[in-house]
Amino acid sequence: MSVMWLATRSTGLVALILLTLVTVLGIATSGGWGSSLWPRLVTNSLHRRLSLLSIVFLFIHIATTVLDGYVPVGWLDVVVPFASPYKTLWLGLSALAVDLLIAVMVTSYLRGRIGIRSWRAIHLLAYGAWGLATIHALGVGTDRMLTYIVALGGVVVVAITALARVTVPARVTV
User: Fold this and answer.
1) I want to staple 90 with a disulfide (CB 3.0 to 4.6 A). Which of 6, 57, 68, 139 is the partner?
2) DSSP 63-103
């Protein structure tokens, strides 16, 4: 086992866990959830900070995969869907996820210039990015049991949060 391979595996799982937490916090933020013990400001701040941290782990995951050279994955394969000769479907889905995350990141920085409606519409792509990243992990993850637990556990947590979001009225303190 090489250090790069271990780094690829671990940063991929950490990135997926962080993306799941970011998704849950995004749902909570959009629902306006908060309390005296956990104000909405804390949720918003944590959402932003974990988003950046997840991108850092995602970049390290990508960099270690490309630089390891064990599998034929190049930098272009990271952003061009279905271009990689290695596990084309699974890496293609991850390239789509990366592209969606880039769109969400860029528009988040331009939020004041593009308007809140446009930003919200584009920001919804984050759900697709999380879903594609989860499917990518299930298809490519080498530590099957751990990957399944993290991915499927994340799906359950996001589903429960989303269900609560649509059943609890927006802007209500919980």
Assistant:
1) 139
2) HHHHHH-SS---HHHHHSTT--SSSHHHHHHHHHHHHHHHH
